[in-house]
């Protein structure tokens, strides 16, 4: 077996080297397919991450919504009475109000305002992100904010700076100044960079209708719940349902899947990636089938002098693997180089696990695509190949 592998490897590599121009072109085609697959995977990861980033990093296990809101944060409204009920449930370590709205961050100079997610959290409670620079939020009504990494990258803001937020209240634009208390990691919400403010401050400055301006009504969208024991999710979930009226409870995974457009977006991108891999199989298969047809006589000679079918098959497999590996390596390198040039506004994230799975799939499409040509090479009859049989 060792001898067969040695001879097969020699024949495969020798042919690739003698026809290196032709095989390099095929490797470049595979490199382009690799580049496309990796970018589709990175785009799916980036868009999905931009939608779920804040929720996926929560220090909570459950999210409580208003009943019949279909796990939609924007459609849910919960008052302070629900918060007290939930905090009193056995197994709940902490709970915090959370509110979400949109605002515009006014930037110095003539730059366009930056659209941001204006998120209200309770200082010191579940939902407030941990800062990596600066300080946590102070009192419930402090004019302070925590900015996420995406906001910092796009604006250059640092803790200690003052920001101006523009919102619509009634029919007028209102402007509010906040001091940047701290900065946290990436915490995008609905594909928007985020700024976090104390909940009472959020309720005061968030966009409001004319009726809401006249009658303050500090109502949260949802309540974020951290458990004493993360393994007791279902037990505590049932207790909250029994003790708090008109609520529905979701795990973080369920909440992410319910985000508007998230599932459809991911399934679309996954389908595109699958079709790209399928096209790769057809391209590689077509090329190696043509290769086999062009050297039918040579294979016939090899078989006529006693070369066994396993040697021919293994040589073909090694050849396909070598060409595929070269193509995937070139494509992976190009993807890495291109990724260094993207600005933070482009939602492309090269996740290690996702990229590794994509590369493994790409390495497998070579042998899969060349399977038909390998079977054809094995079935070649020496006499027919040499034209000695009718």
Descriptive notes:
The mean pLDDT is 84. This protein folds into 2 domains: 2-51 and 263-385, no CATH class; 68-245, no CATH class. The longest helix is centred in the N-terminal third of the chain and has 37 residues, at 20-56. With 390 residues, it is an alpha+beta fold. The protein contains 14 helices and 10 strands. Helix 1 packs across helix 11 (309-339) and helix 11 (309-339) packs antiparallel against helix 12 (352-369). It has a 6-stranded mixed beta barrel. Strand 6 (162-169) and strand 7 (172-184) form a beta hairpin.
Summarize the structure.
The chain is α+β, with helices and mostly antiparallel strands.
Instruction: Please give the radius of gyration in angstroms.
Output: 30 Å
Any idea what the shape is?
A: elongated
**Low-pLDDT ranges:** none
Structural class: alpha+beta
User: What percent of residues are in strands?
Assistant: 15-25%
Strand order of the largest sheet: 2-3-8-5-7-6
Mean pLDDT: 84
Write the element-wise H/E pattern from the N-terminal end onward: HHEHEEEEHEEEHHEHEHHHHHHH
